[in-house]
Every structure is written in C-alpha cells, then in structure tokens.
Amino acid sequence: MKLVITLLCTLATIASAEIKVAALHPLIGNLVRDVGGKNVEVVDLLKAGGDIHHFEPSAKDIAAMKNVRVIFASGKHIESYLDNLKDSVGAGVKIVEVGKPVPSVKIEKGQEIFMCCPEHAAGGIDPHWWHSASGMQRAVRFIGEELGAADPANAATYKANASAKEKSIAAMRSWAMQQLAQIPKSDRKLVTAHAAFGYFCKEFGFKSLPLLGLGREDEATAKYLAEAIATIRSQGIKAIFPEDQANPKIIKQIVSETGVKLGGDLIADGTAPGYTTFEAMLKHNVETIVKALKP
C-alpha cells in the first residue's frame, strides 16, 4: 500500500508540472528544481558520480528527453557534444548554457590568481564556474528568466523562487568568507589536482596552482611538474589537495618529493554523490581547506 501511495504521489507531481526540462549537470538540475518548484519536471542526464569531461548523452538519454522544452547545460565548452545534441532533439528544444552570464576565468600567464601558469592548459577557459557563489547567483537569475520565457504564465513564480535562491547562496558565501578568514592571507594558496578552482580562488582571495590541466586526465610535462615543485617549495605551501575523482598518482608523487601535507579530497566537478548541491559542495570544500590550512 505504501508503495502504491508513493507512486501515486510521484505521478501526481509529474502530472502537475507545467513544463518538462533536462539538465546536463547535477548542480544545474538542483538549481532548476529550486527555481522551477512544482511547475517544472527535471530530467537529470548526467547522474551523481558521472564524469562531466567524458559524458555524452546515449540513445536512452535522448529518449528520456521526449517532450522536453528546455535543456540546461553548463556551457563554457565543457559539453563538446552540444551541436550533435541539438540535431538529435530537434529545433523545437532550446539549449541554454547556464554558465554564459558568468565572467570566464582564462588560463593564462599574468592572471593574478595563478602562482604558476599551467602551460598544458594555457589559453583555455576554465569551465568549472560553479565554484563561484556570485556566478551561481547569476546562473539562478538566468534560469529564472529562461523558465519564465518557456512558461510565461508562471514567470512571476520563477522570478520569486530565483530571488529566494540567490539570497540562500549569498548567505552561504558569507559563511564561507567567515570560515576562510581563519586562514592567514599568506597561506591562501590552493594546490589542486587539476585546473578546476580558478573561480573559487578569484571569489575567495586564493592563489591557484593546478598540477594538471582542465580535465582530470590531462598530462603535465616533466618541465611543468619541476616548476610546480619549485613553486611549492618557494611559496611555503602547507598542503596539497587531491580531488574526489581525479587520479591521485601525481599528487602522491609531489607529496613524496616535497614533504608537504596531504589535505582532504576536494569536490571539483560537482558530481560527487551526496554533494550535488552548491551548498553541500561549498561547505565540504571550505571545511576541508580550512582544516588543512588554518594555523
């Protein structure tokens, strides 16, 4: 009986939705749910634990998007398959790149957030914009506008929900700033597995040193690794942070060579099971960084 009641409630929720949309990232799916509320049914294509750098929608995923009005993508070139997806779903489905209104962080020499430029990713755009609280606020407003355009009858509701979500993100940003203030400015240096924390560093006043490129499997040259090790030593780095889904081999090698403390795993791509909301991801990362770097 309990199973029947649960099924009926689920069916009633779906039936009451005004529009059906899809999300290509778990963090975005959660944002769309918060803004859309009961008026929007969200199909999550990339599930928790998935790899944003290698995911491509399957035939089953395409079928799941039947009657979808809008597809919400991360953008900033992380979904290299978007052109093919447009052909698969047809001209009547709008694809929205949620990261579009967020100012991009470019991997290049001279950027104040980098201690040492990752030459193997030089010239690339960091697509991991969800580590910026202000960027997430822009994304929430954009989602509200796009839902309102797709469903004008409920535009006011989407706008109100987006405003409430923005305030929640602002509160989370204030909490993060307070926690990170425990770390002296001279120690706000983030050495990570790959180039995924540029937005975090820009937002919260850190210097970044990624050991790999924009993707988890990007290779670094022996020359770059030697430069990174020299930088770690000269900058008095206190901890190196692995990531939840990145190969730890290089991290372990550098820890062995430098003797620097190994910090806890950071969530870089926003897909770790249990941490697929902005709030949960940021809380975990901030607490992990503070634990390793505060005096």
Task: Itemize the secondary structure elements and their pairings.
Layout: H1 2-16, E1 19-23, H2 26-36, E2 40-44, H3 59-64, E3 70-73, H4 82-89, E4 94-97, E5 105-106, E6 125-126, H5 133-150, H6 155-180, E7 189-192, H7 198-204, E8 207-210, H8 222-234, E9 239-241, H9 249-258, E10 261-262, H10 278-293
Parallel strand pairs: 1-2, 1-3, 3-4, 7-8, 7-9, 9-10
Antiparallel strand pairs: 5-6
Helix pairs in contact: 2-5, 2-6, 5-6, 6-10
Short description:
With 295 residues, this protein is an alpha/beta fold. It is 44% helix and 12% strand.
What does this 3D model show about the protein?
The structure is a single chain. The protein is α/β, with parallel strands linked by helices. It folds into 2 domains: 146 residues, 3-Layer(aba) Sandwich (Rossmann fold), CATH 3.40.50; 113 residues, Nitrogenase molybdenum iron protein domain (Rossmann fold), CATH 3.40.50. It is built from 10 helices and 10 strands. The strands form 3 sheets. It has a 4-stranded parallel beta sheet with strand order 2-1-3-4, with helices on one face. Helix 6 runs parallel beside helix 10. The longest helix has 26 residues. The N and C termini lie far apart (56 Å).
